Amino acid sequence: MASDMQPLSGHEIPSRVVENCGVSDHACHGKCQSCDSDVKPSCAEVNGISLLIGSHTDGKASKEKCGACTFTYDCAGPDGCLIATNGSCMAVDELTQQFEREQAGAALEDLVFSNDEEEDDSDWDPASGLVMNRWFCLNCTVPNVDEVMYCLNCHELKGSGVDGYDAFKTQIAEAALVSPDTELPEVSTAIGFDERMLLHSELEVKPNPHPERPDRLRAIAASLSAAGIFPSKCALVPPREITKEELLMVHTPDHIESVEQTKNMLYSYFTSDTYANGHSACAAKLAAGLCADLASLIVSGRVQNGFAMVRPPGHHAGVKQAMGFCLHNNAAVAALAAKRTGAKKVLIVDWDVHHGNGTQEIFEGDKSVLYVSLHRHEYGNFYPGTGAAHEVGIHDGQGFSVNIPWSCGGVGDNDYIFAFKTVVLPIAAEFAPDITIISAGFDAARGDPLGCCDVTPTGYSIMTSLLTACSGGRLLVILEGGVNAKLLHQIQRNDCLDAVVLTLASPCGNLHALISLEL
């Protein structure tokens, strides 16, 4: 994965091998599953890193690979955003050593809210030395003082979990299956899901929970079941792992091999926040395989539309690197699968609050794929730092990358719908795609503590309906980011993802609703 990294000393760093089992570790660091040996290759120090804000912590995206970065949050501000107080960057060895030192005797507050600057103790007060116990919200991951029973950011009850997933599991057997070999289903919407994707999780103990965690998918599944969407309104796509040949159309052989190697490791990291364990390679291939098959089924007319309920996400994964929680680029795999099935032109609309730098890189020279992204950018200071308006593609693909960068947080339904009406839809109509793929991150939703935007379920439903009309109803929604599980799964809150899937299941009714809104 890191074949283009520059070593700290300026000399080439050879790929090291764990002597006990022969597993190469050039792509990541972690612990070997076969022999329990520590694997800690040297990594390049980041050159010219600027402090970035957002939900990811591995620095500004670029063609040059960077080392591990740490990013410390303090607390939720008045607008619900996490306030970053300390950004730093270090080589992986240094990061691991610091983590081990901190674990030895530091308090939780010291681990999460540390400050590298020397403190001025001239006005020291004995009361200020007291350690305040905190708990992290399972829903939005924001820290709260121990005495508070409800999260100050999302109002989730302390100690609550995800309910309803067991009901979803029992309904899987009742769902109709749709594949090229089955009869046409009575429903028009297909869903891609496999429980093995829940095995992808961060094993290394950290002081706060990782935003991209299995509970997100459990919450979504429980939501679809409780809302009556699954299995009555959707068919299920049989899962399969994507083949290496299919992945080679998107990623380099080194990248594919680096992800595959993680199955021999107990845990590993591609960047400081992009983790893997022994099940991650399988989960990533299942996610990509489901997206590819859904796209093929839609283009071939077996189903009208589909929702890929998958993880790990994909839109930050580039040609040769995993980053931003993403291992393989699911949207890119789906787009190429659609083209193999007969689509001549594919539209990808990315409404995740972060720019999909990986997807743009993969298709920046391809005029048969139009990539449109709406994201926080803030003049390059919001993760991953790419996606400026002047990034329009290269060579034959010039003009087929369209970026709509927000200069600040707080953007909501009106902003997105105005951008759709004035930019996205006119360009899409001229492009005339055969299928539309949505990279559907929900971290721009109202209440997300890191996205800090204001899109509501109604806004997401409207955008979905508008895009349905772009390609004759052939629409594939692929799950990307969004850390606030409550916004995804609580039915009584008219959640965002249910609104999108309901729009897929009854697109005509929602389009009539749009007309009545006189958008």
Automatic annotation (TrEMBL):
**Is RNA-binding tagged as a keyword?**
no
Q: Which BP terms in the Gene Ontology apply to this protein?
A: epigenetic regulation of gene expression
GO cellular component, alphabetical, reads: cytoplasm; histone deacetylase complex
Which SUPFAM superfamilies does its entry note? Answer: Arginase/deacetylase
Classify the source by domain of life: Eukaryota
What's its EC?
Answer: 3.5.1.98
For this protein, the record's InterPro entries field holds: HDACs (IPR000286), His_deacetylse_dom (IPR023801), His_deacetylse_dom_sf (IPR037138), Ureohydrolase_dom_sf (IPR023696), Znf_RanBP2 (IPR001876)
Where does the UniProt entry say this protein principally localizes? nucleus
Among CDD domains, the record links this protein to: HDAC_classII
Cofactor(s), by name: Zn(2+)
Q: Where in the cell is it found?
A: Nucleus
Q: Which UniProt keywords apply?
A: Chromatin regulator, Hydrolase, Metal-binding, Nucleus, Repressor, Transcription, Transcription regulation, Zinc, Zinc-finger
What are the RanBP2-type domain coordinates in residue numbering? 135-154
**What GO MF annotations does this protein's record show?**
histone deacetylase activity, hydrolytic mechanism; zinc ion binding
Protein family? Belongs to the histone deacetylase family. HD type 2 subfamily.
Q: What is this protein called?
A: histone deacetylase
The organism encoding this protein is Panicum virgatum
